[in-house]
Amino acid sequence: MSDRHAEQNERVKALLARIDADRRAFNRETLSRRRLLQSIHEDIEAHIEPPDPLTADIQRQWQRLYAYNAEVRLRYQRRFKRPPPRTVRPVPADPDDWRAYHWQLDASNHPISNVHNAAAALRESPALSGLVALDKGQRAVVLKGPLPFAFWEALDFEMRRMKDEDLSGLLEYLQAIGLATLTREDCLAAVRLIARENAWWPADG
What we know:
Elements: H1 3-47, H2 53-80, H3 99-102, H4 115-124, E1 132-135, E2 140-143, E3 160-161, H5 164-176, H6 184-197
Antiparallel strand pairs: 1-2, 2-3
Helix pairs in contact: 1-2, 4-6, 5-6
């Protein structure tokens, strides 16, 4: 194995280790919040005689938070369970794989790291579709949802202007799913293109 392949393998291992550590941290934080809410609920139950409107409301809030955390955890496991390696692999001829229909491939059936494929990912990938848009009121590119791998924003994300580190996170994900040599400039060009396609005025909702 060449030094280059060894270095790529080490990077993949490091990425997998970091994702696994982040997943464990997310699970610990979720469990901690659930225990805190349960403790608060039990304390309130011990001091307020039912039926009490406040107790009933807290119970409903706790149930909604529990259901929301369960949904976020399931979405996290489905989206971030195992990130694909950055090594370039042929795109499978799978009717359920959007890449086979929207990406430009070379003679070896490998994806080409260009603006077209980055823009196609932002349009067609279930993990990226609809995430970037142009807010014409602010004249700014906004992020409408958390990016892949950014699981720490899943619980309390609010739409905001896209930052430089968001572009880095998007570039990391695009490289991970096959566009291994995509440049930052091409990634930014694709973001601007798709943001313009998804342009909206705040008054439109």
